Amino acid sequence: MTSPKLQLGKMFSNMQYCYLWYRPYKDRTIFAAIGDGGNIIYADPEKGISVGITGTFKPRIFDRVDFIEKKVMPLVEGL
Questions:
Q1: What is the pTM of this model?
Q2: Which end of the chain, N or C, is less packed with Cβ atoms under 10 Å?
């Protein structure tokens, strides 16, 4: 389910799409289930960390991944 099936365009920040999962980066093992309106499940198997957020988040689909990596991951990794 996490093997890329479709290469998305610029509107989706060139992410790869799998079966209900997105791969934001080609060179990293990060997966994200991104739902309508702002819901996201973010998983980094290499670090053994997953983050789930439910809420309203509209700008762009990739902005949710960016938010987690810049605002949430530094807090989690510091524990």
A1: 0.77
A2: C
